[in-house]
Amino acid sequence: ADNLASTGVKLQDGTYNVDLKIVQASGVVTSLVSGTSTTPHTFDLSTANSFTYTLATNPTVFHLANVTQGQKFIIRIEQDSGGGNDITWFSTIKWAGGSAPTETTTGGKADVFGFIAIETGLYDGFVIGQNI
Is 61 left (phi over 0), alpha (psi -120 to 50) or beta? Predict the structure, then answer.
């Protein structure tokens, strides 16, 4: 009880009256926004940081809107049941390893990519998982 003296008020009966503040620490949760079968397709980063998209056209061209410098976002790309669809990524991605990854083209399989907006129009891109 003596360690509470600095944060509480000692009462006449020797106990302390303490204001407790409970802080819950957790990650930032945003909606998972999904889309399918439009090309070009624009991911609006003012609505979410996590996206899932099913490829149903070949090729599918991706663009970004409303990006904030320093923003981190994830895009999960799944092939439709027929597979074989290609992606044309938004420009100015600096991919880990120096070149854009080859996406999985097997029907029903998915790849997950992560990005950091370094500055307006410039992104670091990372493969989080493939052939999922």
Answer: beta
Residues 6+ apart with CB under 8 A from 68: 45, 117
Tell me how far apart the alpha carbons of residues 1 and 28 are, in angstroms, rounded to a whole number: 35
Which residues lie below 8 Å from residue 52, measured CB to CB, with a gap of 6+?
Answer: 32, 33, 34, 35, 75, 76, 77, 78
Which pTM does this prediction carry?
Answer: 0.75
What is the per-residue DSSP string for 18-41? E-------------EEEEES-SSE
**Is residue 25 a contact partner of residue 41, using CB atoms and an 8 Å limit?**
no
**Which of 12, 14, 16, 53 has its CA nearest to residue 32?**
53
pLDDT, tens digit (0-9, with 9 covering 90-100), for 34-90: 877 667 888 999 999 999 999 988 888 888 999 999 999 999 999 999 999 988 888
Residues 6+ apart with CB under 8 A from 29: none
> What whole-number distance in Å separates Cα of residue 5 and Cα of residue 15?
10
